[in-house]
Amino acid sequence: MQSTYIETQQISFQDFKNSILDDYRLGRISREMSYLGRREVLTGKAKFGIFGDGKELPQLAMAKVFRNGDFRSGYYRDQTFALAIDAVSVESFFAQLYADTSVEREPASAGRQMNGHYATRSLNADGSWKDLTAQKNISSDISPTAGQMPRLLGLAQASKIYKSVKFEGSEKFSKDGNEVAFGTIGDASTAEGHFWETLNAACALQVPMIVSIWDDGYGISVPTQNQRAKADISEMLSGFQRNEGENQGCEIIQVKAWDYPALMEAYAKAEHFARYESVPVVIHVTEVTQPQGHSTSGSHERYKSEDRLSWESEFDGLIKFREWILDYSIEIEGQEEVLATAEELDSIDSEAKKLVKEGQKKAWEAYQKTISDLKSDVLPLVESIKNQNFEIGNLIETFNKIISVSKKDVFQLIRKTLLLTRNQDSAERNILKSKYEEILKIEKDNYSSHLYSESEWKATNVKEIKPIFSDSSEEVDGRVVVRNNFDKIFEKYPQSLVFGEDTGNIGDVNQGLEGLQEKYGDVRIADTGIREATILGQGIGMAMRGLKPIAEIQYLDYILYCLQGMSDDLATVQYRTKGGQKAPVIIRTRGHRLEGVWHSGSPMAGILNLSKGINILVPRNLTKAAGFYNTMLQSDEPAVIVECLNGYRLKEKQPDNLGEFTVPVGKIEVTKEGTDVTLVTYGSTWRIVTEAANELEKLGISAEVIDVQSLIPFDLSHEIAESVKKTNRLVIIDEDVEGGTSAFILQQILEKQKAFRYLDSDPLTISAENHRPAYASDGDYFSKPSADDIVEKVYQLFNELNPEKYPAIY
Question: 129-139: per-residue pLDDT in tens?
Fold first, then answer.
């Protein structure tokens, strides 16, 4: 094996000494942050605390081999690492603890995440990409145990992609694919499926990934032996160890958390394997201590024995590091040299404590100034109208007794005052009302902005380009339209790629990618294993590194495997970083009107409710689907595009401007005009509804058919309300279960669009049965709304209106 980084360093003893003492100083600063952070929570100045004490040394070692352009995907105990790469300061650490909403003071999340969730800012203020190769990168942390792992796979695989893929601007994302993705995870969390799926995929793909497992012997209070089949994760992973000469598997390194020189050597070896051989590495860091327990919510004394607590005190990493420094001596030119004396280390300890206290004080004062300025703006305005209602004086008195005022207290004061003076129309009240509107706008931005992109590349800014048809436009199978459009996409966007089960060699199960792997290669048109969660993770990680990935989930039912990652990670990326990061991955899937319990589901309500932050697009045919791909590839937002499985063999006219035409998100289409009733639907059910509408015409009922097209965002121009205004009747047809997507659509139309004002009849929803669909065409007919169901139920509306003109059918 090639020499490691440490073995090849030629430095003077003084430089070596300075490096060691710098590490000790940083470790002590981090530990003091943990200690003081806990006290801030227990004294009521912060809500919750979870800290990285005990993990200082391995994180210092990891930081040594973390280069510009590298990425970390981790969980919430890596403060020492974040300090070491300048991703967090003492001040920003405490700003996050206090939930300071200033991006400048708390750049990781602007107060949106609880402490310990780190992130670097990948984007400029306008949403454009920074040069990620010029900085050390942390993809925004999430709390769900092992939830960070699938994304890690994509971050690592991007380096492998960049070894062969180049495009204009790619130099901002990678330097010839030499970056490593680092992951961190608690030992107990390795019991989660996401860990195993990710490691399995990494070993198959051979991506440059280093996973650090912090093993403190517990999962909160549950001992390791109760977490997995083997207490020792290294032993359990032994089958993953790569064999010499094989291109599969990983390297496994075990090292103790308190052994500073061994940690340095372990991470140097790991970096070599990952960066220079593109081999995934697991570093199992054992004998980790947790001096303050799991979090501020409890005490580890409740579940750890006296012997264990005593051992943890003795083998605390910083104590062992101090012992190692004091024991170290070397003879240079006949003179004994030491690293430091006890007095010098005591001085570093004192300096660290002072530095942390000063940083905490600055963070607290800056956070409090925001609130005190708000209070100073509002209180005099409230006092100016206290004579208009005697209860306002009581409100002010109660407010002034609050020891630690929060924004909530200020807003409650102003809102209650406005409520009490609702019958007044004084100049003073109008000033207070204006102030309320002004500060509310600020806090809306602080707490509710950036669920979706706010840049010039947001999906709703993509201009509509209609498909062009001519006399020479061919009638082809729907699959041919989407395939030929993909061909144009991969030619137009060299940074685009697609991957999934059966996606590459056979061109997907419905031949929507037929022949494209042969044309564009197996890096860009790739097969994967059967592992939906990490297919999504590949997409998230790649998108965070500037690629345009299309992650294919073979069937809509299977997207349930991805829902945790979609909800907890992808949907919240822009929000939880307040526009600091983005992951514009497209999730390609197919579904609706299928056959069989697990191949015909329509779990749209779950997707809608759990994936706010992702565009949910439901085209009625493959031409519309192609247009949505063209739209989203110009956007910097993620999307789910559900292709109609029963449309691949149906004939469609192929547009002449493949790869160019777009379908706007958030816009409905009226596909049949009518005057008596508005029928709203989407996806494959549109064909059933259109058939029913034609039957209703024969019965004397003129039905207007609306294809929603885009569930999120939904009908931004409120065109459906205009249709209801004309027809005065509304029917929503959906193949989801009752109370599912149809309830969402109903809420949007009645509440958001205020269409209830135009109704002459109760709104009607026609949905599927509440069970999964039974097999075969008959199963579909009796499980989901049929044209017969729609005709009869819509006809019943008119029977109730005019039974003579529309006599009962049954």
Answer: 999 999 999 99
